[in-house]
Amino acid sequence: MQQNSFLLYGANGYTGELIARYAAQYQLQPVLAGRNEAALRALASRLQLPYKVISLEDTAALVQALKEVKFVIHAAGPFHLTAQPMVEACIQAGAHYLDINGDITVFEMLQQYDQAAKNAGIMVLPGAGFDVVPTDCIAVLLKTLLPDASDLKLAFATTGGGVSHGTAMSMAYKLGEGGAVRRAGRIVRTALGHHGRWIDFGPKKLFTMSIPWGDVATAYVSTGIPNITAYTGIPLNIYRLLKLQGLFNWLLRTTIVRNFIKKKIGQRPSGPTDEMRSSAYSLVWGEVYNTAGRKATVRLKSPDGYTLTMYSCLLMAQKICNGEWKVGYQTPGTAYGAEFVMEIPGVEREIMMANHA
To answer: What angle do CA 310, 285, 227 make, to 5 degrees?
Structure first.
């Protein structure tokens, strides 16, 4: 086993390829893995990296491949289908698990493997990318600033860039499913965009709507704050249209509509170009309140989501190679703390406190 080697599953996907391309900058050598032999061979040849063709259904081959490395970066979604076989293989092999998932239900499912991960002496850390690194690090910082916080609100907005096939496919699987918030420590299902509000992100003030972002699951693990709502920037006219979505959610959940949308996604480019990524950026905001009316606010500007995901995964990979990891189920914040996001190139942060909400 090479000290700097890891399995990169889904390497031929948009984000997987991005991680593979930049791995050498962090003195890391991924073993490219996935099901598509032709795509893997071409990528391996271009980057001069080893590769393995493995199906997630082939447990024996997957476990054997994981035994040859310290950890996997799992970049092959949709994660509600792929996370379970991968994490179970990691537990068998004694290999750490990282992924770039952002799905609440997947975070909650993986948390159930906490004891099994501890027994195996491994770390299980989903959400190692834009979902949910910047928001989770902000949540942990806000908890430090206001330890008795009862309410946490998080938001993000992206300027420029685009959406990869993998992200779009994951969204397609969730069409018509609605939203989610956390209230009194429990996840509560709501209508998508049940709450809309304007948020001052610093560089600009944007309209946002509530969404079932991964932090509804992870920020509770990281902070214990019982009430959590996540928001994303959206044009006001689209928000008004989405308010009508409840009338046709049943249609969006049908196989025929989802298959039609997936076909359309397959006809689009695989994701944003390098030029699009370099000109895009993300804005992240978080705020906590306590019952006495005090609040704390943190604002952050970062590279676009895909670039941040690549940097974040490679930084975590480097840390694991250096022996920096915690056993059991972890969030980015519990494993690496509030300051981890500041290690990512191009991240700027502003912290504000106030006496009254």
So the answer is: 110
How far apart, in whole angstroms, are the C-alpha atoms of residue 57 and residue 84?
11
Residue type at 166?
G
Question: What radius of gyration, in Å, describes the C-alpha atoms of the chain?
Answer: 20
- Cβ pair 126, 83 in contact under 8 A: yes
Q: If you average pLDDT over residues 101-121, what whole number do you get?
A: 97
Query: How is residue 25 annotated by DSSP?
Result: G
d(CA 30, CA 5) in angstroms, rounded, equals 5
**Residue from 214, 227, 142, 223 nearest 179 by CA:** 214
Report the predicted TM-score, pTM, of the whole model to 2 decimal places: 0.89
The count of other CB atoms within 10 Å of the CB of residue 267 is: 6
The set of residues, in sequence order, having a beta carbon less than 8 Å from that of 278 and lying 6+ positions away, is 307
H or E, element range at 308? helix 305-321
Decide: residue 19, CB within 10 A, 0-12 exposed, 13-18 middle, 19+ buried: buried
Angstrom distance (rounded) from CA 161 to CA 111: 32
Residue-wise DSSP of 72-104: EEE--S-HHHHHHHHHHHHHHHT-EEEE----H
Q: Given the DSSP bridges, would you call strands 96-99 and 295-303 parallel, antiparallel or unpaired?
A: unpaired
Angle, helix 104-111 to helix 79-93, in steps of 10 degrees:
20
Residue 11's alpha-carbon distances to 4, 91, 282, in angstroms, are 17, 21, 24
Could you give the CA distance from residue 37 to residue 54 in angstroms, rounded to a whole number?
9
pLDDT tens digits along 183-212? 999 999 988 778 889 999 998 999 888 888
